[in-house]
Amino acid sequence: MQLEGNCLSASGGDWPIDGGIVRFRSSDGYNATFAKQWKAFQLTQYDEYNKTALTRNRFLKETGWPASGLDGQLILEAGCGAGRFTRLLAGTGAKVLSFDYSSAVEVSREQNGSFPNVAFAQADILAMPFADGSFDRVFCHGVIQHTPDPAAAFQALNRVLRRGGLLSFDVYHRDGRIRPWKSKYLWRPITTRMNPDRLLSFLEWFIPKWLPIDTIIKRIPLLGNYLGAVIPCWNYFFTDLEPADKVRWAIMDTFDALAPTYDLPVTRSEVVKWFRSAGYTNFEVHEGGTGLVGNGTKP
Ligand SMILES: C[S@@+](CC[C@H](N)C(=O)[O-])C[C@H]1O[C@@H](n2cnc3c(N)ncnc32)[C@H](O)[C@@H]1O
Q1: Runs of H (alpha helix) within the chain
Q2: Local structure of residue 87 (DSSP, 8 states)
Q3: Any atom of ligand 1 within 6 Å of the Cβ of 58
Q4: Is 52 near ligand 1, meaning CB less than 6 Å away?
């Protein structure tokens, strides 16, 4: 069913529904690079498409949530991108409200619009028009480091979660260690100022040529990862992706590392402080996902 018209709220809100998506905001704003990324790589990370279980395994391992049996619950997915996790959330049987800041949500709507239990919106985590305590579960993976204020994003997600509800998120980890992938921070002052179309075109040209060389370098014992960090290339040689998918993932994730406006990692103690300040006693923070994963039950 394709919803069109307007979405009205009891508090007087009136938002257009366009293409089956409630538009609480209408432009891509600072997430224009993600709109571009997810329109260029619509299916790349869908397990069914790349014939792996990478996304499913990450979802199950990092959230601890079940793959099914959540009928009757209401889940909020914040920052859905192209919607690979939306598909898994749809499979839980819960009702899912899935949104992204940018028009990337159109890609997810295209891929997941046939699930009767999923609704789509374009909205900002930092300005969600949802009442306090609306959701049984809040899922937000791969997102809050790309907002201008990760701590405020945590607070906003916590606000819309009901007492006793489950929050699951991840965030880039600022661990103070020298890590090969951190060389992106040397390049980002240049790449974030580039025209994103040009950057993506360059990577589409360069990565397929560079990837075989990068793979040889990264296989050198001990030093390989550091030598391979000089030129950023997100290389998935260690996965069971097909060769063509390895190239697509490398282009996609190198762009994902170099292009976004915001890339704000946080420390483990900051994440623990977020939970404690919000009154959580039942929570855990572990390394995983895109850095640190936080799971908690709202008091
Ligand atoms: C790296 S992508 C992750 C997408 C998806 N969660 C996944 O893991 O496949 C980050 C997404 O967060 C979205 N995003 C960034 N800031 C946001 C905000 N303030 N509100 C909602 N979404 C936001 C971006 O538009 C982008 O699609």
Answers
A1: 32-40, 47-50, 54-63, 84-91, 105-112, 150-160, 184-191, 196-218, 224-227, 243-258, 268-277
A2: H
A3: no
A4: no
Domains and CATH numbers, the chain: 5-174+265-297 (3.40.50.150), 180-258 (no CATH)
Nearest residue to 101 (alpha-carbon basis) of 43, 38, 55: 38
Centroid of ligand 1 to alpha carbon of 246 (angstroms): 22
What is the pLDDT, as a whole number, of residue 2? 61
Do 172 and 290 meet the contact criterion of CB atoms below 8 Å apart? yes
Cβ(157) to ligand 1 under 6 A? no
State the distance from the centre of ligand 1 to the C-alpha of 174, rounded, in angstroms.
19
What's the confidence (pLDDT) of residue 228? 80
**Biggest alpha carbon distance in the chain?**
62
**Residue 142 CB less than 6 A away from ligand 1:** yes
Give the separation between CA 204 and CA 248, rounded to whole angstroms. Answer: 9
Contact between residue 252 and residue 42 where contact means Cβ atoms under 8 Å apart: no
Choose among 40, 237, 45: nearest CA to 141. Answer: 45
Structure tokens that stand for 76 in this block = 């909020």
User: Ligand 1 centre from 273 Cα, in Å?
Assistant: 23
- Atom number of ligand 1 nearest to Cα 77: 6
Span 17-47, pLDDT tens digits: 999 999 999 999 999 999 999 999 999 999 9
- pLDDT at site 13: 80
Ligand 1 pocket, residue 23 CB under 6 Å: no
Q: How far is the CA of 34 from the centre of ligand 1 (A)?
A: 7
The first and second tokens of residue 171, run together, are 């965030």
Residue 113 has what pLDDT?
A: 97
218 Cβ below 6 A of ligand 1: no
Closest by Cα among 115, 117, 116, 111 to 55: 111
In the chain, which stretches have pLDDT less than 70?
A: 1-3
